[in-house]
Amino acid sequence: METGISHLKRQAAERAVEFVASGMVVGLGHGSTAIFALRRIAELLRSGKLEDILGVPCSSQVEADARALGLSLTTLEEHPVIDLTIDGADEVTPDLDLIKGGGGALLREKIVAQASRREIIVVDETKVSPVLGTEWSVPVEVLPFGWRSQAAYLESLRAEISLRRDRYGAPFRTDQGNWIIDCDFGSIPYPTGLANELDRRAGIVAHGLFLGLATDVIVGGENGLEHWRRDSRRGSERAGIDDRVSGRARGGQ
User: Fold this and answer.
1) Which of 33, 50, 178, 243 would bridge 44 by S-S if both were Cys, CB 3.0 to 4.6 A apart?
2) Would you call 14 a catalytic residue per the annotation?
């Protein structure tokens, strides 16, 4: 039986799929919310309501899921510009800034997001925070070589760190074979400054601060759906009443 949170995730994801049109190249996000979008796209393709969709998966797991559902896939080498991506997030603010990477696919997710004309993020209402870092640590993907020096650097930025491990106790490996250090910085009122500090460090491959990348956020809540849009002149704004549809636990996207 679908839980309350799962129901909200599905509603948000299926609303995002309404923006997918036939002939699009679509980024396929990773995680427990984005999978609902993937299933809905496959359903619409089977029914003939969508045609000629090519997907760019954000992880090897999503690639396997998409193939199992019969979706046609492509690559960024073949299609370097993506029309629309639907993905989840671990934490989102009203400014449409995000923390992502709870599922470990942050590097590919960021590459796909940067290649997308439109990045639609789908979350349930528990993922909304006033400030990034309120409920979620920042995943930092590092090369295994010299990882302890990266750990020391992250601690110098006042992070409480933890090397992510798999179910067998070994370091968790991303699709690129890198490791992830989860960094609790506490609340992050100025995420751009932190992102710059992380971007400048050799050995840090990617981090989970996704700033200025989301064009839309669809939030599934007990009182219905909210659609937030980014306005390039004013940061972001919540959509009007016409975009409302009836209808702080940690966890993966």
Assistant:
1) 50
2) no
